[in-house]
């Protein structure tokens, strides 16, 4: 069974976080939700989520098949500024495991030095030209380039989550989950 880590920071985009958590769990992927802070985390629209545990309590060497970063502001800025998360993302990719970011969260991958030479997408205007230097930015709903997956925003969250399911569990599992969504 694949295992995904989803990291929430104050001001996260609720639709992106909950959609990914829900769809990955529908696909029988183990999901651990971690907060940058201890206790409940309030999203950008004032929805409160209680993570499974603080990120600080998850061993830096813990193995996840996928780390997912929801966007939203100021959530993505908080993620970008967390040195422990940056090191965790770098180690994840160095170990040949996947990372994914949606909306404004690709700025975290940029800070970690993970988008150079990659095709990425993000919420329009969320990243500066300096942050995306070295990457090819597209207007696609979802971009998958090697171990890096990015997506545009709340409206693409379902496509983003389905892509992650396909990458971890295959096309048949993705199709099974998608069929149950009545799209």
Description of the structure:
The chain is α/β, with parallel strands linked by helices. The chain has one domain (3-180): Class I glutamine amidotransferase (GATase) domain (Rossmann fold, 3-Layer(aba) Sandwich), CATH 3.40.50.880. It is 33% helix and 21% strand. The protein is built from six helices and eleven strands. The strands form three sheets. A seven-stranded mixed sheet has the order 5-2-1-6-7-11-10. Strands 3-4 form a two-stranded antiparallel sheet. A two-stranded parallel ribbon has the order 8-9.
Q: How are the SSEs ordered, and which strands pair?
A:
Layout: E1 3-8, H1 14-26, E2 30-35, E3 41-42, E4 48-49, E5 53-54, E6 66-69, H2 75-80, H3 83-94, E7 98-102, H4 106-111, E8 119-120, E9 136-137, E10 142-145, E11 148-151, H5 157-169, H6 171-180
The radius of gyration over CA amounts to 15 Å
Determine the fraction of residues in helical runs and give it as a percent range: 25-40%
CATH architecture classification: 3-Layer(aba) Sandwich
* Element pattern in H and E: EHEEEEEHHEHEEEEHH
What's the shape? Answer: globular
Structure summary, number of beta strands:
11
Structural class: alpha/beta
Mean pLDDT: 98
Unreliable spans are none
Counting structural domains, the number is: 1
Q: Counting H and I runs of at least 4 residues, what is the number of helices?
A: 6
Strand content: 15-25%
Distance between the termini: 26 Å
CATH class: Alpha Beta
CATH superfamily: Class I glutamine amidotransferase (GATase) domain
